[in-house]
Design goal:
BirA Bifunctional Protein, domain 2, about 425 residues, Helix Hairpins, about 40% helix, 3-stranded mixed sheet, alpha+beta, 12 helices, 8-stranded mixed sheet
């Protein structure tokens, strides 16, 4: 959530930065609430001063002129009633303002390029080379079905579209990737968490999924409402909700979860294969940092996600998203896009975002650098390290052979119990 004090004091600047996103944001209702809040604060303060003055006047005249007391009491009651009404309206306005702010996106960082869509994103660097395949490469879903290791038809029978059954050694490969990724990241200083896969509404609101994106969430019905996690970012970020962290920052966590998304608004996109499923697995990296170190720690998190792709020998590029293509909660975001020979295209496999204090303000996550210091909001950073299903896609398409078999990257051999190819 945006800093409402900053919004009130620097309204024009904040409005200009939000317009960089290219969205048609109507800030007029927010501006109106801010103005009303300021007027109410002034009115309440003036009425309180008037109350205090009337009380002092009553004390002075209590002995000198007892007959004047009743008139002063009548005046005081009227002032008190008006102050009460203004105070009640002030609380209403502040609640309305806070609710309105929950729908506002984060301010883009000054280092984020201007632009309206993915066409305006900036390629920062690339790694590796596209595989030189001497045959027409197949897409991953065709490879998986011909190998008898992916079954979309039965998954649709069981659960509906956008689900899949993995079979045999492809299921083992997915499981191997989860363990491999976690081993790499814990070896770099991340603490592993295995979080709940169901979370409360407050947790979804704390990371910014609610209220704006509720249509994309799956939730339980009945009296005990819970949301299936769309990403481990939600439970892991809220691990420190309503806390004041003491001691050294940053704190680094890595977590595996299945992820559940309704994919609202994606009708007709990626209807075949594993790219856009309602359920998929992901290994997530989350950091809590001091504001002064968040930019550097963001770059390090991107490098940590890149290491997985490098160890797997997968060609990719790092893309800095423009202001108009970033997710609503991010202040700055890099996407890692892996090359898929079957699709002849780069596809996102990790999105690494610095939220600055946007999530921390919502989830009330603060830190105290030294004993006795005033608590400050942390900055939160997260990114996929990596999306597991999309990594399977990348391996199938990049390591395919002319006969339809698929080699397994050497980095995964210790996790595959002797299996080195899919046939």
């Amino acid at each position: 959530m945006l800093d409402l004090k900053n919004l009130a004091q620097n309204y024009e600047e904040v409005a200009a930065r939000l317009k960089r996103r290219g969205q048609d944001l109507d800030l007029a209702p927010v501006a109106k609430l801010i103005a009303e809040r300021l007027e109410l604060i002034k009115a309440v303060e003036a009425l309180r001063q008037k109350q205090n003055a009337a009380n002092e006047e009553m004390k002075k005249k209590a002995k000198a002129d007892p007959g004047a007391i009743e008139g002063l009491r009548t005046e005081l009651r009227a002032v008190s009633q008006e102050a009460k009404q203004k105070d009640e309206r002030l609380r209403e306005v502040e609640a309305e303002l806070e609710k309105a702010a929950l729908y506002l996106p984060n301010l883009p960082s000054p280092s984020v390029p201007d632009g309206k869509s993915a066409e305006d994103n900036v390629v920062v660097r690339t790694w590796g080379e596209k595989p030189g395949l001497a045959f027409a490469p197949k897409e991953h879903w065709e490879l998986g079905e011909k190998l008898g290791l992916l079954d979309f038809e039965r998954a649709t029978k069981v659960s509906g579209p956008r689900f899949a059954f993995y079979k045999g050694n492809l299921a083992r490969l997915e499981r191997a990737l989860v363990t491999f990724m976690i081993d790499v990241h814990t070896g770099r200083g991340y603490t592993e968490l295995l979080p709940p896969f169901l979370v409360k509404r407050e947790s979804m609101q704390g990371t910014g999924q609610l209220p704006k994106f509720e249509e994309d969430a799956f939730k339980t019905a009945g009296e005990h409402e819970l949301f299936l996690v769309p990403t481990a970012e939600v439970p892991v970020t809220n691990y420190h909700a309503d806390e004041i962290l003491e001691g050294e920052l940053p704190r680094r966590y890595v977590a595996y979860t299945p992820c559940f998304r309704a994919e609202a608004g994606s009708y007709g996109k990626d209807t075949k294969g594993l790219i856009r499923q309602h359920q998929f697995q992901k290994v997530e990296l989350v950091k809590f940092t001091a504001p002064e170190q968040s930019a550097e720690e963001h770059e390090k998190l991107v490098a940590d996600a890149e290491e997985i792709l490098q160890r797997l020998g997968l060609h990719y590029r790092v893309v800095l998203l423009c202001a108009g293509d970033m997710g609503a909660n991010a202040a700055k975001c890099y996407d890692l896009e892996v090359w898929l020979p079957g699709q002849q295209a780069y596809r996102e496999i990790s999105s690494c975002s610095n939220f600055e204090d946007f999530q921390a303000r919502r989830a009330k996550i603060r830190y105290r650098a030294e004993k006795g210091d005033k608590p400050r909001l942390v900055h939160t950073i997260n990114g996929s390290g990596l999306a597991v299903g999309r990594t399977v896609v990348a391996i199938l398409e990049n390591y395919q052979r002319a006969d339809g078999s698929v080699a397994i990257p050497e980095a995964l051999w210790p996790y595959m119990n002797g299996v080195r190819e899919l046939r």
